[in-house]
Amino acid sequence: AARRAAEVEKVAADINAKGGRAIAVPTDVTNSQALEALAQAAVDDFGKLTILVNNAGGSRAMGPLTELSAKDWQDCVDLNITAVWAATIAAVKRMTEGGAIVNISSLVARGPIPGSGHYGAAKAAVNSLTETFARELAPNIRVNAIMPGYIPTEVMMAALGVADESGLPALAKQLAIPMGTFGKPQDIGAAVVYLCSPASGWVTGQMLPVTGGH
Fold first, then answer.
1. How high is the pLDDT of residue 140?
2. Cβ–Cβ under 8 Å, residues 138 and 174
3. Do 94 and 184 meet the contact criterion of CB atoms below 8 Å apart?
4. Active centre residues (catalytic)
5. Sign of the CA dihedral running 17, 19, 21, 22
6. What's the rounded Cα separation, in Å, for the pair 194 and 83?
7. pLDDT tens profile 170-183
8. Residues facing residue 101 across a β-bridge
9. Considering the entire predicted model, what is its pTM?
10. CB within 8 A of 134, min separation 6: which ones?
């Protein structure tokens, strides 16, 4: 699920072509009705819902908190906090056989982020939601979060002012990532698989950093 239909349709087609099974559901996570429809689509097509990954997030607004507009603040809250809460509520109502929820937080939740304080505060709130949902939904539903480090996604590159991939090597050196490279989406995907699998059956309420040691 994502806002851009063409992108999710391509991902679903790739999964189906490789022998998996997927459906594409264009979804704006800031719309609670769309989240309800998404959760129900999973049940209708697959027969049940057992896993939710809250992966939508970000903020293109940058600047000191004292200069942030009320709209930019609210947009960040709607996308990064309210959507996580609303999607979890929509999924939990349908997780009749138990399940696992993974929230994608961020390393910025750990401390002050001048110029992006609203986003850091939102991700800190995601961690708090993760811990509380984990307590409230145990033992049938496990809830954990992943805190990614620097991964050159479209949103991160825009936030750091990198125009294209040619600027990444210099930025990686500047950031001094211990593992020596930026992360990849697959690094986060592997952590999600762990947190949704029986291998993490006694893990809940945890924030897992996947940061290359940063």
1. 98
2. no
3. no
4. 119
5. negative
6. 23
7. 787 888 888 888 89
8. 52, 143
9. 0.93
10. 142, 143, 144, 204, 205, 206
